[in-house]
Amino acid sequence: MNVRKELAALLLVLCLVLPLARPACAEATVTHQQLENLLLSVDGNDPKTVRTIHYSYDYNRYVSLRDMAAALSGTARHFDLSITNDQVYITTGKDYTPIGGEGEPFPDSGVYATRPLALYLIWLDGRELHYQSFLSPGASDRDCFMSLTDLAMQLDLSLEVSAGSMRLNSREGFTIDLDTLREGGFYYEIHSGLVGDATTGAIYTAWEPMLSVPIASTTKLMSFIIIMDAAADGEIKLSDSVTIPEEAARLSRTADGVIYMEAGQVSNVTELLCAMLVLSSNESATALAVHTCGSEAAFVERMNRKAQALGLSEGTVFYNCNGLPVYTDNLAATKVQNRMSAYDMFELVRYLLDTYPEVTRITSLRTVTLESFGVTIANTNTLLYNLPGVVGLKTGTTNMSGACLVTAMEAQDASGETHMLVSIEFGAEDSTVRTTLSEEMLRYGMQMLREQSASGAGATVPVDAEELIRAALRGF
Amino acid sequence: MILLLLVILALAVIAGLLALKLSRREDPRLAGAWQMRAELTDTARTRADTWLQRAALGEQVPAAQYLPTLSVTVRLTLSPDGSWSREIRDGDYESARTAAERGLAKALRELLRLRIADSGRPPETAAEAEERIRRVLGMSTEDYMREYGPALLPPLSQMRAVYDGSGTYLADGETISFDGEAVRYLMDGQFLVLLRPEGAEVYERA
């Protein structure tokens, strides 16, 4: 074929295709219409404008970090800010250097475009945070919009918001009053929740703690107990090799599979425990169940017996080792899931942390390399990044259970003694809600721990009949 | 002529006023001390049930089985000089509260015994359950109810706001006006019934 004709054809194609490709290469944006110009007053001084985006719903506020940095400059809560293509750097204790445009209000009936909500890396004084945020388009003048609640918690800001204005008291830090917030519907986003001190057994606050609800992969905390019991009894060893059974391999090939496995492949108990707890690998839980008891059915029987031995209520029931939904084996087959109440989970976690404290060596890992599978996995629990002291424990999600999270966190009381605070959250709408709510509950737990130990209150008095009875039963 | 008409008019007015006054008959039987029981049983039992049923098996210890009937005495004094006073009798509220707390403590001990048996542990007597609770709380169950337990009765201040008061009264055989507020009443021997819009109050002569 004539070379000239080929070149001409190629040029023609390029001229047609390139203009079409250009829009696809441009930055994807979302347009926001619910915009607010909040007036922020620090310590009663003249207010400054802080632009806020209400994301999808009124009062779901995401605030401009540049406007906040400019407004707090010169105060005790000042911070510096720099933003690159996809990372945000916050340095507290330094004044902010404006780039121009800070505090200029959104125009009336305006719209504002940002990149879509995503998990951008936010660095706070060198510490990595994982929060969803918006970045505005642009290069050198990029702004970041972060959830007001998340920002207040991380920068320890005492903020009051109402009717288009914000007040900040720079001499005080972030506090949360869950008893008051409860009346405003704080807990309506979840099925049940609880925060308490696993060290003393005190429960600081609870929402529907007796309700038996689906618990999804938080099941795997009980599975861990059963496996460790078997190791303690000499039935298995943590150094055992494990041949992946067919049922685990089959599960790994389904939509619920997390790590691809082949039947007959060889791994070991320790790696499978890491995969089960860090990445919530369902097939790893199944493989371990079969290795421990010969079959998953026998393993599940042990789980239910253990629940009874721990004095958990009748509302705790296990159908499998991993928390996935299963169907009952009868004509009217029903989809069922492992169930437990927040109270029961608190008791289970207390037992787990007391009997097998080494669990937190696994659950606190942010990443793990599994040699036998040739993969490096990341922990599903973002609170490991966002709240110093968090050491685990387990996430869980199914359609029916919602997003669940059981968290353990080391915190010091007023005398410097370390306690293990535990928050339990079942049934959030998504992982963002479960993480934010759990963080708020744990911060409340820290407040209560400090207040009660400072006042010399010692052991907390049980707040209701169930708590009192459980405390009495623990005395056996 | 006009003067005569004015005099007649004035006399008519005076006569009318006199007739009106004479038609208001005093009721001498009313004077004296009366008392009624303000019932608190249902309120206390409902609140106790709500508290107990937050615990597993709580519905198996119904408060009605453990809380006695509870009430406070309200004393109404109608003096012959037309003054009245009403108040909750001293000590009654405190007695009712103590009785309610004791009942709830008993229910809680029974609930603990049920839970101990349900968990497969060796059964315990009520005394052993009490001892177990004391070890946990560092105080008796009754003391716990007093300090930290649920409020089983309406606050005394709220009850005083409803019942306590004083003023003047005037009766005409069918109604008593307490400081101008008319209330129909019935008397039957030793009983005085005030028919208030919110319900009847039955007093017995003290």
Protein traits:
heterodimer, A: 476 residues, alpha+beta, Beta-lactamase, 2 domains, 10-stranded mixed β-sheet, 5-stranded antiparallel β-sheet, 14 helices, B: 206 residues, 8-stranded antiparallel β-barrel, 8 strands
What does this structure look like?
The complex is a heterodimer of chains A (about 475) and B (about 210). In chain A, a hairpin with an 8-residue loop joins strand 9 (about 125-135) and strand 10. Chain A has helices at about 5-25, 65-70, 150-155, 180-185, 220-230, 245-250, 270-280, 280-295, 295-310, 340-355, 360-365, 385, 430-455, 465-475, and strands spanning about 30, 35-40, 50-55, 60-65, 80-85, 85-90, 110-115, 120-125, 125-135, 145, 160, 165-170, 190-195, 205, 215, 240-245, 265-270, 325, 335, 340, 365-370, 375-380, 390-400, 400-410, 420-430. The longest helix of chain A is centred in the last third of the chain and has 24 residues, at about 430-455. Helices cover about 35% and strands about 25% of the residues of chain A. By secondary structure, chain A is an alpha+beta fold. Chain A folds into two domains: about 30-175, no CATH class; about 185-475, DD-peptidase/beta-lactamase superfamily (Beta-lactamase, 3-Layer(aba) Sandwich), CATH 3.40.710. In chain A, strands 5-6-8-9-10-4-3-2-12-11 form a ten-stranded mixed beta sheet. In chain A, strands 14-13-25-24-23 form a five-stranded antiparallel beta sheet, with helices on both faces. In chain A, helix 5 (about 220-230) packs parallel to helix 8 (about 280-295), helix 6 (about 245-250) runs antiparallel to helix 8 (about 280-295) and helix 7 (about 270-280) packs antiparallel against helix 8. By secondary structure, chain B is an alpha+beta fold. In chain B, about 45% of the residues lie in helices and about 25% in strands. Chain B has helices at about 1-25, 40-50, 90-120, 125-135, 140-150, 155-165; strands at about 30-40, 70-80, 85-90, 165-170, 175-180, 180-190, 190-195, 200-205. Chain B has an eight-stranded antiparallel barrel with strand order 1-2-3-4-5-6-7-8. In chain B, helix 3 crosses helix 4 and helix 3 (about 90-120) crosses helix 5. The longest helix of chain B has 27 residues, at about 90-120. The interface of A and B includes residues 210, 308, 468, 471 and 473 of A.
